[in-house]
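To whoever is on call:

I kicked off a structure prediction for a single chain this morning and the downstream step that reads the tokens threw a length-mismatch warning. I double-checked the sequence; it's 377 residues and nothing unusual in it as far as I can see. Pasting both halves so you can look.
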Amino acid sequence: MITKIHGIDRHKKTSTISVLNREGEEISLVKTVRDLREYIKKLGSEDAVVLEASNGTFYWADQIEATGAECYILNPYKFKIIKESWKKTDKIDARNMSNALWVYVITGKFNLPLVHNPGKDIRELRKLFAEYQLLNKHQVSYKNYLQALLSDDGVVLTEVEKEMLFNTEKSEKVLDILQITEATRLNIMINLKLLWVVLEAKEKIKKTILFFGQVFEKEIDLLLTIKGVSALMALAFIADVADVKRFKKVKQMNSYLGVVPGVKSSAGKTYTGRINRASRKLARSIFTQSIHHIINSNDYYEGKYQELKYRSGAGKARIAFIRRIFGVMRRMLINEEKYKWFREDLYTKKKKDYKLAVSKWKGIEFKINCKEIKLRA
């Protein structure tokens, strides 16, 4: 039985902790805890702890739960007692959290806006995908900058010439025939080398994601039956959602993934706005790049997409289909069923390619500024 409620306002070097008993009375207020690890070691099954979601929170939640204590992670953006308090101090925040958790745990009269702890495997995947997305942004940035440099000298490349320029073996042939200044040539050579490092790192990270994603092999096998969905896309969806069963309705999941438009009602009128961008966005961004492969998988999807595109525009049509596919993927994972328009030949090829990519993974090894970086399994 829970007998103590701990509200921990955690910062980088210190923490402030308010402790309540089962009657809701504050029995301890520690203004400065410098060694949170030692404090956690004293917890047990009779303790319940609440933390704000921030950098490192999941790590500390794991440490707390390892002692047998219960740990709750607050969404600070929705916990308005803290967000909108007139006077905000560490002491007040700790007390607010402990009081809110006491009401939630002991009386059950108040629902806390909690953040789901996805587990270590999902968190590791999210770290890798965050790096993958960052490298993807760098890739786009370097390519745009290279084309801007050429435009300054009046050069516009064809698609074939662009492909050759970005290729490590063919770039010199393109540069030799271009009528550009020496300053432009030097800048292009420097940024091409940086681009190649980014592309190499991106490919390594991609293979690492596939390797570490093997723990979700069952889920990947199901999602690969969807034409147009690769193993990387399946893992992006899994990394974002974590556990599809925690969403009672598909609308809740789609809202969490940021593919549901905001709706406002006033004076009997309903207004549909833009999608909620304060949400998980990995799966949305990955699927946005490849949604046409899924749309083209059957005539029904193609017809519906063209109809939506004509009526609402390409952007809204894409989001609508991503929303639909996410719902299909959720149902497939919950019911453990294959895709309705499943094709054995395409599925076999994708699964074979995935197994091949995983079998060739030997860690990450590349060079940046002559310093060798190695990660081994």
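Update from on-call: the warning came from a stale cache, not from the record. Cleared it. Sanity check on the structure: The chain has three domains: 4-107, 120-214, 224-342.
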